[in-house]
UniProtKB/TrEMBL annotation:
Sorted UniProt keywords: ATP-binding, Nucleotide-binding
Positions of the ABC transporter domain: 11-234
Record Gene3D superfamilies: P-loop containing nucleotide triphosphate hydrolases
PANTHER family to which the protein is assigned, alphabetical: ABC TRANSPORTER G FAMILY MEMBER 20 ISOFORM X1 (PTHR43038:SF3), ATP-BINDING CASSETTE, SUB-FAMILY H, MEMBER 1 (PTHR43038)
GO molecular function, one term: ATP binding
Name recorded for this polypeptide: ABC transporter ATP-binding protein
Cited PROSITE patterns: ABC_TRANSPORTER_1 (PS00211), ABC_TRANSPORTER_2 (PS50893)
Species of origin: Streptomyces morookaense (Streptoverticillium morookaense)
InterPro entries, sorted: AAA+_ATPase (IPR003593), ABC_transporter-like_ATP-bd (IPR003439), ABC_transporter-like_CS (IPR017871), P-loop_NTPase (IPR027417)
């Protein structure tokens, strides 16, 4: 399928400012997320990753600036079946089986009847297709949520820490799936506070304290900072950041 690789970015934010609980948590962010690639959104816990993702899918009140998604304002009705969003908390029904959940969401979305089987296979849950979701492990439940987001083959997937709590084999399988989806033309924006996932992304957005610290390919960020890994690159960028006000994170920037 051709989603228009090389055309306008999937996401364009300009001057995005968000206030939560009376505090500015996003400070005028400017960023682009291209189509046909995996963009990693990395930064310490509380830096504003989820708030940015919420703004992109249109469920966050925005105090200033604008966010355009697939050529329409974020949250537009026209985007409903073109954007898949997976939150950190699995949002599926425990008292239904995996297949029943996905048939339900497919019906709501108007996705093809063959989609539930396809997405269950994509997330590696075929052997559990008839299990009640309440009886699955946390990682399996998270994959049911991801499968729901894949229904209808969205052009943009917004995934909030999709690999948390998964074992290394499953994490590798999911990153392979993300790569396949991007190769098929979809845009993926994947948040993580695990810096070692950075090298699996085509591009990175590094965030800190509600600001974009840097954007570029992993190789560019390593070159720019002279660091040998993204963890060290992040720390070098924090040290160079004129807006840095808080204490430096220690070895684990989570
Ligand atoms: N419902 C809320 N009301 C007020 N402030 C909030 C709310 N949710 C989050 N915040 C604040 O907004 C800031 C950004 O939070 P956000 O959840 O976007 O961070 P994050 O980078 O996604 O963190 P994590 O990696 O831990 O999920 C934090 O300072 C947080 O305390």
């Amino acid at each position: 399928m051709n989603y228009g690789v090389g055309s306008a970015p999937a996401i364009r934010a300009a001057g995005l400012t968000v206030v939560r609980g009376g505090r500015t948590v996003l400070h005028g962010l400017d960023l682009d997320v291209p189509r046909g690639s995996v963009t990693g959104l990395l930064g310490p816990s509380g830096c504003g990753k989820t708030t940015l993702l919420r703004s992109i899918v249109g469920v966050q009140r925005v105090a200033g600036g604008r966010v355009e998604v697939l050529g329409s304002p974020a949250g537009s009705a026209a985007l409903r079946d073109r954007v898949g969003y997976v939150t950190q908390a699995p949002s599926v029904y425990g008292d239904l089986s995996v297949t029943e959940n996905l048939r339900y969401f497919a019906a709501v979305l108007g996705a093809p009847p063959s989609d539930p089987g396809r997405v269950i296979a994509q997330v590696g849950l075929t052997a559990h297709a008839h299990a009640l979701v309440a009886r699955l492990s946390g990682g399996q439940r998270a994959r049911v949520s991801l499968a729901a987001a894949l229904l209808g083959t969205p052009e943009l997937l917004v995934l909030d820490e999709p690999t948390v709590g998964l074992d290394p084999v499953l994490r590798q399988d999911l990153w392979q799936l993300f790569r396949q989806l991007a190769d098929g033309g979809a845009a993926l924006l994947v948040s993580s506070h695990v810096m070692d996932e950075a090298t699996r992304c085509d591009r990175l957005l590094l965030m800190r304290d509600g600001r974009l610290l840097a954007a570029g390919t992993p190789a560019e960020l390593l070159r720019r900072t002279g660091a040998s890994d993204i963890d060290s690159a992040f720390l070098a960028l924090v040290a160079q950041d004129p807006d840095a006000t808080a204490a430096l994170p220690t070895g684990d920037p989570s």
